[in-house]
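Researcher: I'm preparing a figure for a lab meeting and need a structural model of a single chain. I don't have an experimental structure, so a prediction will have to do for now. The sequence is pasted below. Please return the structure as C-alpha cells so I can convert it later.
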Amino acid sequence: QVQLEESGGGLVQPGGSLRLSCTASGFTLNYYAIAWFRQAPGKQREGVSCINNSDGTTVYADSVKGRFTISRDNAKHTIYLQMNNLKPEDTAVYYCAIDVTNTAWGPLAIMEYEYWGRGTRVTVSS
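Model: Understood. Here is the structure written out cell by cell.
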C-alpha cells in the first residue's frame, strides 16, 4: 500500500518562500504521475502542479505559474514544491497525491488521483 507524507508547511510573510516535501513509501512506487493540490478554508480543492513519472513533464495551474516549481528526487522517493513570492491567497492545506491508473480526468483533476497524503498547512500572513 502506497503512503504519502507531506512536510514543510508553516507561517510565512507575503513575498516569502517555502519549500514543501512529499515522501512516498509502500509496496508500489511505480506510478503515472504525482501532484500537489491545495484547499483553502471554505474553498474547493484545486490542482496546483503535476509531474509525470516517466518523462518529467510538468503542469501548473495558472494561479501559480512563474512562482511555484515542482521537482523530484527519485533516489529519495520525494517530490518538492518550491513556492516563491507567496501571496495571502496561497494560504491553504497542501496535499500530495499520486495517479496510479492514468484515468482520463486530467493532470490537475481531483478524480485522477487514487492516493492522498494528510496535508501540510501553509499560512501566508503578516
